[in-house]
Specification:
This protein is mostly beta strands. 11% of the residues lie in helices and 41% in strands. The chain is built from one helix and nine strands, in the order αβββββββββ. It has one helix at 3-16, and strands at residues 22-28, 33-35, 48-53, 57-63, 68-70, 78-80, 87-89, 98-105, 110-121.
């Protein structure tokens, strides 16, 4: 199966889940990447806001009460802003390739706000 097919299939699945935005990025190994969320996209009365890697690994969650929880596996490799809910991934490796999704829960519904599809690549030497 070609890499292009896998990427397209993954993007199709993400869009089929109702994501409002999918951003694809190629990132150089050992560099940083900002998972940006427009603050105005986050409902004022949310219960929990989460950044999720692939489909099930929560990197970080922000509670409506101001409590922030960071997954211990990522605690040394992310920086975050409690005000904006954006997250900087640090020193990315090939294993960090995949989808990163911002999800928010309110009393009425769960919503996907943005999804990044990141492919980490080693630098090509000439």
């Amino acid at each position: 199966m070609s890499l292009a097919f896998v990427i397209l299939a993954g993007l199709f699945c993400i869009m089929a889940q109702g994501s409002t935005s999918v951003t694809s990025e190629f990132v150089k190994k050992d560099s940083d990447f900002l998972l940006y969320i427009n603050k105005s996209a986050i409902p004022e009365k949310f219960l929990i806001f989460r950044w999720i890697f692939k489909t099930d690994a929560t990197l970080i969650s922000f509670g409506h009460d101001g409590v922030t929880e960071v997954n211990y596996s990522y605690s040394e490799r992310i920086e975050f802003s409690k005000e904006s809910h954006s997250v900087k991934l640090k020193r990315l490796q090939e294993a960090d390739s995949g989808t990163y999704t911002a999800k928010v829960s309110t009393l009425k519904k769960d919503q996907t706000l943005v999804t990044y599809s990141i492919i980490v690549q080693a630098s090509i030497s000439s």
